[in-house]
Design brief:
Layout: E1 4-5, H1 16-24, H2 36-48, E2 53-57, H3 60-71, E3 77-81, H4 85-89, H5 93-98, E4 101-105, H6 115-122, E5 132-138, H7 151-162, E6 167-171, H8 175-182, H9 186-190, E7 195-199, E8 210-214, H10 216-228, H11 237-249, H12 254-269, E9 286-289, H13 295-304, E10 307-308, E11 310-311, E12 315-318, H14 326-344
Parallel strand pairs: 1-10, 3-4, 3-5, 5-6, 6-7
Antiparallel strand pairs: 2-8, 7-8, 9-12, 11-12
Helix pairs in contact: 1-11, 2-11, 3-10, 6-7, 12-14, 13-14
Bound molecules: pyridoxal-5'-phosphate (PLP).
Amino acid sequence: MIRVDLRSDTVSHPSPEMRKAMYEAELGDDVYGDDPTTNLLEERAAEMLGKEAAVIVSSGTQSNLVALLAQAGRGDTVLIGNKSHILNAEAGGASALGGIVLIPLQNDQRGTMDPTEIGLAAAPKDHHKAPVSLLCVENTQNAAGGTALSPEEIKIMADAGRQYGLRVHMDGARLFNAAVALETPAAELTAEADTVGFCLSKGLACPIGSVLCGDADVIEEARRWRKMLGGAMRQVGVIAAAGVVALDTMIDRMADDHANARKLAGALAEMPGIEIDLASVETNIVRFGVPAHKGMEIQGRLKDEGVLINGGDSDLRFVPHYGIDSEDIDIAINAMDKVMAEVAD
Ligand SMILES: Cc1ncc(COP(=O)(O)O)c(C=O)c1O
């Protein structure tokens, strides 16, 4: 029996308050623009992130895709971190559907990119090169272990691109985790971004959805792409209702997930065979190394203990979320202790 699912915050379920709000949501037809609950969510989201407008989409992947399609044309280049989710885990949508060239730049350990490299990649107005129109940043940076990039770190990257006229898109799938960790209003983290998408269905614990925010004209263009992708939905207030509750009730709560992540990381650091950089555990993602080729075996043995984890051959990831409490973390720690002793034999 599975007792603790720490594969991702995407596995979190909606709160009773969200379910009630979904049941009672006032509905219209969002393709006609008259779904009041969706309009409320979009207004709230735009306001919280200091943007003019917002649009609900089906997923984080779709928010990134419509943001790129709306801001980069066919044959345009988008500069992007080499460890970014958009580049590595979104099925190549921007290239396949938008003819966009994704040029990866090195992400450092925290997930930032070198401004000089951004400038060099953005600079040439040269007819041999695809014109560069957009820079993408990610906050928190999933592959770096959920690091929370500060407004200053983001500004350095954004300024380097803006110097050459680039727009900036932020994949803020876990933006509110960064805001909570840095004790900084989310709008300060998004000030340098022309567009920012955040997920409702991760730490915010909604069942479905993301919201893309930005200037009114870009969001209008994103709506057109969303329609083309088949992502314009009708009584989507059913989903938006959970989002409104999440913005009210789920943000400050993320501090608990971060505390659980630190507790877990601290215990892992004491276990033989585990490599973990405790300083990288800034939010709710705990990434760590295990002996080479042992990753799959550890996942299997943990599953037998009732604990689900995500990862690969030699690196694994736990992600505490809504619904996971400190006792669940104890269960995961005890299971890890047992399994690491077994694999060491
Ligand atoms: C940083 C980041 N961006 C985007 C996404 C995509 O979100 P979705 O799974 O809703 O498409 C994820 C998903 O885990 C993510 O971690």
